[in-house]
Amino acid sequence: MGIDIARLSRRSLFRSISPGAKAMTSLFDPLDRADFIHLRNRTVMSAMSRGFAGEGHHATAAMRDYYQRRAEGGVGLILTEGTLVHHSGDGWNNAPYIASDAHAESWRPVVDAVQAAGAAIACQLWHTGRISHSDYTIDQPVSSTNVAATGINRQNGKPYGNPRALTPEEMPTVYGYFADAARRAIDIAGFDAVELHVGHGYLADQFLDARVNDRTDRYGGSVENRCRFALELIEAVLKAVPAERVIARISPSRFMGGLYDWPDLEEMIAYFIPALSALGLKALDISCANANYVDTAGRIVRMVRPIWDGVIIGGASLTTDQAKGELDAGLLDLVTWGRAFIANPDLVDKIAHHKDWTAFEDSMRETLV
Question: Which structural domains are found in the chain, ordered by start?
Answer without folding.
Answer: 29-358 (3.20.20.70)
